[in-house]
Specification:
Number of helices: 4
Radius of gyration: 22 Å
Number of strands: 8
Strand order of the largest sheet: 5-4-3-2-1-8-6-7
Shape: extended
Order of helices and strands: HEEEEEHEHEEH
Length: 184
C-alpha cells in the first residue's frame, strides 16, 4: 500500500511540475529591406536553438531557409489558410520586447508612427513600461533595417486550457450546423 501511494504521489508531482513549469522562448530577428532578407533565430531558455535561418522571397511566395541545403517553401496562396488555424498567440506571455529600427530620412515619419502605435498597443493590452524598448536610429542614405528581440513564456497548462477552449468552440459550431441541417 505505501509503495503504490509513493508512486501515485510521484506521478502527481511530476505531472504538476510538467504542467506548470514555465517554458521560455526568445527570438532574435533582423530585417534588411535593401537586401530583401530576414534573418531569425528562436531559442528555448536562451541556450537551446530551436530553429534559425533566413527568409527570402521567390516568385510564388516565401522561402524559409533553415539550413544550407533545406528550405521550406510557403506559397502566398497557402498563407491565408495557415493563418486561420488554431492560434497559439494568446497562450504566450510577453517578458520583454525590444525593437530597434535604423532608417534614412524618407522612412522616418512612417517608422516613427509605427513605433508609437506598437507602444500604444502594448500598453493597451496591459504591458509594463519596463518590458518594452523602442529605438529609432536615423542614418544617411536609403536604408531600412529592423531588429527585433522578444522573450515570451508559456506553460503546458495555459496551452492545454486554450486548446480545450478552441475544441469546445469548434464542437459548438459543428453541433449548430448539424442541428440546423436536421431541422431544415
Amino acid at each position: 500500500m505505501s509503495r503504490s501511494f509513493l508512486y501515485a504521489v510521484l506521478i502527481l508531482l511530476s505531472t504538476a511540475f510538467l504542467l506548470f513549469f514555465p517554458i521560455v522562448i526568445e527570438s532574435d530577428t533582423h530585417l534588411d529591406l535593401n537586401r530583401k532578407k530576414c534573418g531569425f533565430a528562436v531559442f528555448a531558455f536562451k541556450r537551446i536553438k530551436l530553429i534559425g535561418g533566413y527568409i527570402a522571397t521567390y516568385d510564388g511566395g516565401l522561402a524559409l531557409h533553415v539550413s544550407k541545403k533545406n528550405a521550406i517553401l510557403i506559397p502566398y496562396s497557402q498563407m491565408d489558410s495557415e493563418r486561420k488555424r488554431f492560434s497559439f498567440i494568446r497562450t504566450f506571455r510577453l517578458i520583454s520586447f525590444r525593437l530597434t529600427t535604423e532608417t534614412g530620412a524618407e522612412y522616418l515619419l512612417p517608422v516613427g508612427l509605427i513605433h508609437t502605435a506598437l507602444r500604444a498597443c502594448f500598453f493597451a493590452i496591459g504591458g509594463d513600461k519596463d518590458k518594452i524598448e523602442n529605438n529609432l536610429w536615423l542614418t544617411d542614405g536609403d536604408t531600412l533595417r529592423v531588429s527585433l528581440n522578444f522573450v515570451i513564456f508559456f506553460n503546458l497548462y495555459i496551452l492545454l486550457k486554450n486548446f480545450l477552449k478552441f475544441l469546445k468552440e469548434k464542437i459548438k459550431i459543428l453541433w449548430r450546423k448539424k442541428m440546423k441541417k436536421s431541422t431544415a
